[in-house]
Design a protein that fits this description.
Layout lengths: L2 H18 L3 H9 L6 E2 H8 L3 H13 L3 E6 L2 E6 L2 H15 L11 H5 L1 E3 L2 E3 L1 H12 L12 H10 L13 E4 L6 E4 H13 L3 E3 L6 E3 L1 H11 L3
Antiparallel strand pairs: 1-3, 2-3, 4-5, 6-7, 8-9
Helix pairs in contact: 2-3, 3-4
Length: 228
């Protein structure tokens, strides 16, 4: 395959992903799946406010474009995002889109702005404050792409193993669409969220991206990340 053919194929692939995300109903489906769970077609039809037959057509297009995957379990089929890269793409697009509106038109619900899921890690105001602390105390590198030795040790003291057991990137700066700043993504972002959940510091709401942080959680965040 010559270079021109390769470029055409690559550009066509990008265009196909863009086309798959060009429909408002499909975007609603993708946003619903941002909570990291696997959803049934019926649940997604309700979330997107469309008929079951229309949902089936949209899901097929999203599967073909490799934005979502299907999990078969017995007689049931569940749909979820194809991976963290897709979640990061959607989150980044939310940030880009919100820049097209004036501040008067932006109406992010306060509870979502405070704390929410971004696939498998924490997003929102609280997550941005945590990222700022990690950067300021040099637990992560300046670009947010690596965890430092100091960070590894501090996370170990928290009870979090900062050494990934897969090929997943250790950490990354994920653009927060409501705060327009970075929160912590990657393996360590997911590990931190799981740790907080296991400690009972926060609660996820099934079917929603909203996360509730309880007083115990805020106290723990103040101890570990030094903010109110």
């Amino acid at each position: 395959m010559d270079e021109i053919t390769q470029n055409i194929t690559f550009e066509s692939a990008i265009a196909a992903v863009g086309a798959a995300m060009s429909d408002a109903s499909r975007v609603k489906i993708l946003c619903a799946l941002m909570d990291g769970r696997a959803w049934t077609a019926t649940e997604l039809s309700i979330a997107a406010e469309i008929s079951a037959s229309t949902t089936s057509s949209h899901l097929s297009k999203l599967v073909v474009s490799q934005l979502i995957t299907v999990i078969a379990q017995g007689k049931h089929r569940y749909f979820r995002l194809a991976g963290k890269e897709v979640a990061e793409l959607i989150e980044a697009m939310m940030g880009i889109t919100s820049n097209n509106f004036s501040s008067a038109k932006i109406s992010t619900p306060p509870h979502l702005r405070k704390a929410r899921t971004c696939y498998d890690h924490l997003a929102g105001e609280v997550a941005v404050k945590i990222y700022d602390f990690l950067f300021r105390e040099q637990w992560i590198t300046a670009d947010g792409g690596m965890i430092t030795l100091a960070g590894i040790e501090h996370f170990r003291l928290m009870g979090i193993d900062a050494q990934p057991k897969s090929s997943r990137k250790v950490c990354c700066a994920c653009l927060d669409w409501s705060e327009r700043r970075s929160h912590l993504g990657g393996y360590i972002g997911a590990a931190l969220f799981t740790h907080c959940e296991s400690k009972g510091w926060l609660t996820k709401h099934v079917g929603y991206r909203e996360v509730t942080i309880n007083p115990k959680g805020y106290h723990a965040f103040k101890d570990h990340f030094h903010f109110d």
